Structure formats: structure tokens, C-alpha cells
Protein 1
Amino acid sequence: MSKSKKTTKTAAAAAASATGMPDHLEEIRTKVFVRSTHLDHTNAAEDPDAFRALDFDNSFSLDDFKQNFKITIQEKSAEKLVFDMVGASAPIANALRRILISDVPTMAIEKIIMFQNTSLIHDEVLAHRIGLIPIAADPHMFKYLSESNGEPNEENTTVFTLEILCTKNPRALPSAPPSVQFNNGTVYSSALKWVPQGSQAETFKDAPIRPVHDDIILAKLRPGQSIEAELHVIKGVGRDHAKWSPAATAFYRQLPDISFSEPFYGAEAQALKALCPMNVFDIEDLGSGPQAVAARPRDCTLCRECIRDPEREKRIKLRRVRDHYIFSIETAGQLAPETMFRDALIELKKKLGVVYADLTANEQAPAAE
Ligand code: SF4
């Protein structure tokens, strides 16, 4: 499995000639061997079997992974986490991305008992809007409803109420805007009132359960109109409904790697610097006069503007580092982004455990006759 990925061009060509490989295949094979970690421009070669016919092993190696895997946090705030994941393969990065979107549990409004709704919005539309409100409630403190055979209790459900009536402000002038003329003319998410069940008030006294944002508009009312409803919040995952997904965005890109096969000096260097919309290039004197250098490759968006000219394309190597991912997670507010990533790792481990148990069971099963 683990043939050296650093075989030289000469060795690769010799091996190919020895097998009588056609020239065009020999050329591809040589390219893959020589540049196994730096793909030209935006070409990709992540499939482990993609180059099997060329005798190149692109598959996952646990030893390499253990030795090289590294995470470096680049940016962290309450809403966003950006980190470098080095030494991982695309399937691992993609598995984490997909788990972040669809398998990290959160709490969301699932059931709405509508007692009264005299607003212009139909019950089902209003229920849909309310259901999408992100709820700040620690999902680790709750069980899934299915674990209690669908019976709601304080371990799997919490409750909000929404009771609001629009009235006319008697002191407002007729020319005043609706926000002054009417009390509760606009219903915001802040109107949701948490009703702790059982011991929930004590359990969550340090972080009371609430909507993540207070200013989400749910409906508009006019004097005399009212809404009265009870909302049941349960634990779920994004694969069942997007309202449970904590990921506003979760994506990665490979670190760009820009180098020159022939340097750019003087006016050419200045022209190249001016060409890049992301200001990736600087002019530096490296001993042989001012020349263009790729000073900020992380900022490169691989827009290809600098290689649009065929002459320049021959001199600039625009590549991506194969095992270096710049990962970005933005939360919708239910969980901190670092908690989302930790939970995604836990979920990935659980899934791998299932696969491992299945494989082990199959290995131990007696062969069918
Ligand atoms: S690909 Fe675009 S962003 Fe990247 S270095 Fe070239 S011009 Fe700049």
C-alpha cells in the first residue's frame, strides 16, 4: 500500500517505460509522482484509487496521519472559528463538514399548540416562522424524545409560551408611525417566554433557555389582533430539519501555493502585483534585484487572473497544498463554534465505531457455504 510518494521523475519515467506505458499515460504518471503534494492550478487528485492504474498510491495512511495531523486556530470569536487542519485528507475534512451541518444536535421548536391567532398570517406559516427561531439551550443536558418512546418530560422537552395582544396607543397622533400608534404592532422573538419544566429552572439557572436573537420579526398585528400559543422545544439534528442545524456555514478550502518557474522582475513584477485583486504579491529584493514574491498566499482565491495570459501561465505555478485545509465554521447561535467542532468530532468517532463494529462482526462471522 505505502509506496514512496516521493519517487523521482526519472524513476517514474523509467518504471513506466519498463511497463511499456503509452507516452500520454507516462506523462500523467510522472506529473502525479513529482507533484504528489502540490497539484497544478486547480486540478484535484483526492480519490485514493484515482491513479491506481498508474501504480501511484493516493490512499489514506494512518501512520502519516498520526505523525502529521495538526490543527492551528487562526481566528476565533463568538460566531466564527477559522483554523488550519494540516495532515488530513479530503474525506476526513468533508466528513467533518457534513457532520457539522447535519449531525450535531441542538434544541429547536418542534411542536406548536396554537390557541389563538387572529393575525393576518395563517397558522401554518406562523408556525413555520416560529419553528426556525434558533434557541439557546445546551443540547447536552437533554435526551432525544425518541429515547422516552415519544413521551415528553423535563429530560427531553422544554416549553415556551407566546401570548401577545396588539392595542392602540391612545396618546399617539394619527400621523405617528405604526411603531408609536400601536402597542405590540410587531411581534418579535423576544415575546417568547420560557416556562421551565420540573427542575429545569434550577438546572439552567446560570444560562436560562431563550431565543438566540430577540429581534426576529414573527408577525405584524393591528389593534385587537392577538396570538396565543404553546411551543415545545426538543433535541434534534439538521439531517431531520435545517432548524436543528447549528451551522450557518461550514466550509473548507485548500491552502493556495504560488511559486514561479521563472521570476518576474522590474515592470513585469509591478504589473503582476497590480493584476492580483487580492494583493497576494509583493516586490522584494532577494539579491538579484526587485522581483515579485507571493507574500500572502492565504489570501489567494484561485481566481486565475494572474495566469490568464498564456505567457504568464508558463511561469507561475498556481497550486493547492493537498493536505492543508483552511476550515471555517460560523454558528447560527445555538452553540459556540468550538463546541460545534468538538461535537462533530464526537459524532465522527461514533460513526466510525459503528463501521468498525460492523467490519469486525463480518470478519468473525463464519463464511457462507
Ligand atoms: S489566482 Fe487570483 S488571487 Fe490568486 S494570486 Fe492569482 S490573481 Fe491573485
Protein 2
Amino acid sequence: MHAHRIHIASPAAIAAAAVALAAFGLAGPALAGASSASASSHTITLKNIAFHPAKLRVAVGQPVTWRWEDASLDTQHNVTSTGAARFKSSPTKMTGTYTVRFTHVGIYHFECTIHPQSMQGEIIVH
Ligand SMILES: [Cu+2]
């Protein structure tokens, strides 16, 4: 009866909120439903020798796609798991994508083995 109603003015505001929530790791199940354009929100870009974002939350069963965008730097990268779960892209990609669907709740760490100092990341599956 006194339920709070939150009105979000624009898609831009929704996107900003999603980014803010993701940055602080607070994105909940409701957010996943709100972002029908989910493909972009579950993409990690490999650019300027870094993962963008380095930390991402997704719901169980949703795919995460890494996208290589450092061809202009003539630099190769890979996505290699560093925890118990095993996943690995081809080792020396410069373009294209790699997708993993996480089917279990957990925290999955990964790195680029070519640039482990600056390229480390984490997928939180909830
Ligand atoms: Cu790299």
C-alpha cells in the first residue's frame, strides 16, 4: 500500500544507475530484468591493455562476452581463468570475441597471461 515507486526519467538515467550499481557491486536481480539491452551490459572490452570493466556481476546462466579492441596497439590479449573454474580464450587474440556462460553461482577470477600486471578481472555470478 505504501510501496515506494521509483520513477527513472530516461534510458540514460537507467544506464547511469546500472553503471553506478555495477561499480559498487550492488546490482541485483531486478536490474537484470530492467536491462533488456543486456548484451552490452555483459561485455568486457579489452582495450588499452586493461579490462573494461574489470569487475562484472551477472545472473546465473547469462553469458559474458569479452571483446578485443586493442588491434590499433598491435597488442595481443587472452582471457584465462586463475581460479578453480577453467576457461580460456585462444592465447593470442587481437580481434573478435570470446563468450563464457556461467552456470554456477560464484566468483570467477581471470587475467590476460600476457599482461597480468594490468589485466586482472572478476566475474561475480549471482
Ligand atoms: Cu593482455
Protein 3
Amino acid sequence: MDTRALRNPYPDYDGCPASTQAFFDSQGKLTSEFAQRLSSKVSELLAVMENGLRSADPRNCTTYTGWAGIALLYLHLHDVFKEPAFLQKASDYISRSLKCLTRRHDVTFLCGDTGPLAIAAVVYHRLQRVQESDECINRLVQFHQTVVKGSGNLPDEMLYGRMGYLYSLIFINQQLRQDRIPLQYIQQISEAVLASGEHQSRKFRVQNQSPLMYEWYQEQYVGAAHGLAGIYYFLMQPGFVSAEEQVHRLVKPSVDHVCRLKFPSGNYPPCIGDDRDLLVHWCHGSPGVIYMLLQAHKAFGVPQYLEDALQCGEVVWKWGLLKKGYGLCHGAAGNAYTFLALYRQTQDPKHLYRACMFADWCMNYGKHGCRTPDTPFSLFEGMAGTIYFLADLLDPMRSRFPAFEV
Ligand SMILES: [Zn+2]
């Protein structure tokens, strides 16, 4: 992991209020100086991003690296700062995205057409363009039967599979604050994912260790983006699987199987059978697996899950400032969400302090000799993701890893 990360230059939290008082008070509220610093950096980076986007691929509609991701950033900034200009920007970018939908079989929030449709539905709803919003939701729901049936060997994971479609539905319900998409739709997808997982577990003859199993491109991925941890995170959300009994009988032992893959460092492999302890990304490794662990702790109350999650925090603190840069998917901003998740669950100021240190790193964007990503201004690989995180840190208890956390 040493070859992939830069040395963390920050002193760790020492338990003294003195070490945190420049950043937040005893209630976890950011100081006005630090909040101001974050806000000015958001404005400064936004100007750089806008300029950089002039040379972005005009035909990339996706949330992951295209126009929908930029729209999602502006929607978030509108939430945080309440400035109407941000909503207008979100509207401009999402209409650009809708003009170049993939029209392929990709059905996910991050890499397919349903992300742009879901984001558009929310943007139009906020602009009180009710008819256009409804139309986007109707188009989104039209994918439902195909996703449940899974024609064309649809996988189950987050980036290209059923869970990525499921997230589009949840996004609508969360943002419109109502059960706009009936829970039954979400449960039908969860059931299809469970059936697929039981089938694959039998196929690989691992029923005794893990009643569910999933593969993508002939690999059994472990992390949040393509793998088991991302899938189980959603299956453990209250009500997503209608029969509680299935969560205990199928999901819990499968989560335990992932837990057994932990390296001595506290990190997790990218795939089952890969024993190289190298990657500390949201997409592969502990910064993504932690969401499964924290949800398992909420769902089953077993202390070991929280202990494993805390160990993820230690891994990210040591090896999370990546040479790959400052992005969400495999960068410092995405890794910083590990600390925010731990802070929300434990309220231990140590984790908020660590998130603030990673934010400081991100505010020195470009000064550490990191690599430039392929899409340097995008939401998941580039600067838009870093801005999203800096704005999210302003209200730590409301923060959520975008396009993923419920
Ligand atoms: Zn990644």
C-alpha cells in the first residue's frame, strides 16, 4: 500500500480539545473560520472545474464521469448553500446529459441512463416543472421489469448491475421525500438479487461458507463498486428485503464471509483469491467495505462489525492519501467519507478530526504530485467529487457518499 499512497503528514487526533478547536466545537459544529475556508475553496475549485469542463467529452452523459455527475454536484451545492444559481446550473448540465443518453443496456445510476433520468426528475421537481419531472420518473420505471428479469446477463453490482438501478429509485424517494417509487419495486429488485446470489453460490459450491455469491467478469469482487460489500450494504437496509428471515439466513452469513477475507492490516482484497494488499479505494478495499460493516452493525448489533469498521478507519488514515489523486472513486475525497461514516455512527471527534485533515489535503489540490485522472473534472474521478466532499463536510451529520450511501 506504501507504493500507492503518499505519507500522511498530519498529526493524529490526540484526544485534547486543543487539537480540534480550530476545526469544530464540542458538538461537532464546524468553526466559522474553517467553514469559511471550505466555502471559499469550493468557489475557487468550481471556477477551475468550469474552465476545465470546456475540454470534457461532450457526449458523456453519465454520473460517473460525465454531465450528470456535474449536475449532481450542483444539485448538492444547491442543497448546501441554497443559491438558486446552483439549481440553474444543475438544470443546464442535466439537460446536456439527457441529450446524449447511452441508450445501451446499462441501467445504473453511475454508468447508465437511469442516473441522468433520476437526477433530472429531482432537478425539474425543484424547479416546479412537474410534468417533465414525472416524465423522467416514468422513463426510469420503464427499466424495472428488465432489471428484475435480468435479461442479457445483467450483473448485480453497483456500477453496472441491479443495485445501480436500485439506487436510482432510492434517490428519487430520498430527494422527493415521499414514497414516489413504491417500496415494492425496491423489494422486487432485492429479491432478484438474492435469487441470483443463491444461484451463484450453488454454482461456485460455496453454499456452506456464503449462501450468496456474486461475480462480475469472472471475478468475485469484494468492494463497494463491483462487489459483495456494495450489494450487501443495500440488502441490509431496513425494508429493502421484505422477509427479515432472509436477511438473517442469507445476508448475515455472507457478510461474515467477507469479514473473513480481512488482511492482517485491516484492509480487504479487491477479489476473492487475490492476496495482494494494495488498494485502499472506495471501489476496492476498506474505504468501500466499511459501509457494509457499519450497516451490519446497525442491523445485527454484533460489536465485531464495528471493530472491523474502526480498523478500516485506521487503514484509511495510514494509506488513504492516494497518489491517484483527490477524487471519490479512488482518491482522497472518497476515502475521507470513511471518517464521516464513522463519525456519524460513533460521534467520536477523532473521526471528524481525520475528515478535516483529509479536507485540508484536498484543499491543497494539485500540490502533492499526484497523477491526473483520465477525466480530471468529473464527479467520480476528478475535481467535481472533491468539491462535493468539501461542501458535504460543512454539515458532517448530513453527509453521504454521493450516488451510493442511503
Ligand atoms: Zn475507483
